[in-house]
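User: Second chain of the day. Same drill as before.
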Amino acid sequence: MRIWCSGNIGGFQPLVAGSTPAIRTSYHVQSERMPEPNPHDTASVGTTVWTEERRDWETADFTSLKDGSAFPKEFMWGVATASHQIEGGNINNWSAFEPRSKSQQLSGEACDHWNRRTEDVGLIKDLGVSHYRFSIEWSRVEPQQGKWNQDALQWYSDLVDDLLVQGIQPMATLHHFTQPLWWDEMGGFEREENITHWVQFSTKMFELLSDRVEWWCTINEPAVYASMGYVLGEFPPGVRSFKKTRLVSMNLMRAHARCYRTLKAMENGNRCQIGLVKNINLFDPYRRWNPLHWMQTKLLDGMFNRCWLKGLATGRFKPPSGLFSKRIDGLKGSSDFIGVNYYTHLLTTPFMPTKVEIDPLIRPWEQRTDFRYPMYAVGLRRAFDMVRNLNLPIIVTENGVADDDDDMRPEHIRRHLQITAEAIADGLDVRGFYHWSLMDNFEWAEGYDQRFGLYHVDFETKERTLKDSGKEYAAIVKAHSMPQLVVMAGGLGTRLGSMTENVPKSLIEVNGKPILSHILDWAKRQGCMHALVLTGHHGEQFDGMTHPGMGLTFHREDEPLGTGGALWNARELLEERFILVWGDDLHPIDYQPLMLQHSSQNAPLTMTVTETHSSSNLEHDGNVLLAYDKRTKDTSKLNGYEAGTSVIEKSTLLKHGKDGKWSWEETAYPALAGQAAVHVDNTKFWDMGTPEGLASLEKFLNETTL
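Assistant: Same format as last time:
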């Protein structure tokens, strides 16, 4: 969700440009910089220097976004939605308000997501993202006070399972503007005693899902809920009352604090990450020399941003337009992360109207979105700086643009991701980015007139179509993601005796769990979200196996086919590029340098080679495989050992593969001499194929945290 107030002042006083290095040009809207915030002083949270930067995006270099070097491998790539905007068929405070809204459009079936869940999870997977933020519709779960809808509870549980099967991590939001009619009739957040009902709902959902959902948002954009509903009257209940605004704001923060403390005390509470989502709407003086414009800027900034952030930091909250702050039990330190929703900045004057039909003021060089506010990407860094002294991990829980023609959104994505990458490079703890939104949807008071989706939705047929912006986002995500992991997990082995007589080596427990789980743990840390596990002809022993944070596909053979035959037999399930590992080897190398070398050499295959192994089976020149022979007795020319982790183009398998039983390494490696790239990495790998190897691996895992 986004909010803006508009200005009705004609004319414009140009700002004087000053140059800064690289591609930045800053327009300073205050002659003297305010003091830098003290990171140890919680009272300074939210202090900014109010430097309104202008950047020449025409000369921007987005290379790092395309080559995968802009973000860390553990970065959370996501998309976001809200229940009322996509599910359809909801009966809540918003559906009751819609006939009185600005657009008077009814949400109705919305995107029919409630009936198209499986299809939409597939759309998320197709984008390649690792995370999905959704909200839980309280009115569906508890349509009458104390009456729980088991079908709705099961639907949300199934949604979580569907996501996890695809390797997508869910993030659940407990309040995203909507609430049941029975609770609304009781006064909703206008009455402190009502908070207990929402906390009970939150507890119910946490009990149901917290074993599988790690990330939780308590309340989405409390400042928007309060201001749009009780100042501007654009959201339900559609009233204008500063007194009620203060009361509702106070109760929103009380509700967040109580919810956080309650959930953290529950089972899984310590494991889960729970936080508040704050919309950061930047305010800048329309004319920097006008003290009245400055006064209005500071007033709005204080009411919309700083009072909320200071409340989180200090535990004392002074609501918008309030004169005094009050201590809220449990508020201080009540977030494990801070969710930042960012869309734009607003130019302020003392004569801003309290309706949103008039276009907001913009700078001459700024481009208007369909929502009429400007695209101002550099403001995202200012939003980060505003919340950084909370000393919490930062997650961009929403960022997007209203753009019906999709001609602005690709550039909007590039600019905001560039700003995010720069912030990370400068040391800010930004953990993730969720694009708003997955698909076009019901945009609250604007109805269906504003489109924010990466997928276009035909609201008549409900057909979804990927936009060019969706392709752009997916390409950037893919550049920063690891390809499919393929695990050769079916070998029985003979050297471990009766232990592996009927059990694949990959399922032998080491330090409390199968070595396959350790392999998947490491691969997940490297950014792999999807794994194809080749189980050999004992695939039934893998039944029911899952791995948190990864989508697993299992494929078996009817008879032993060898490593090459197993790959060939699964060729329809292989992606165009994949990482191959062995199910009885733990090889904890950094995958990123391996992938960069593979891409830079444009090789059909890149193998990892160690030069510290006790024996050798290949010859290389540091970059290219010259010869491979694991059976030769003349090892005088051999100078390396194939260490088990390789990157393979599917076309290479299709060229050299065949039906029947055969060895991948003994067939493909000799054939690729002079072509296959070599990645030298002397990280020790652990082969548990012998009793000695198994004991060494056990010792290693007991002493090491991967």
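Residues 1-44 have pLDDT under 50 and may be disordered.

User: Great, on to the next one.
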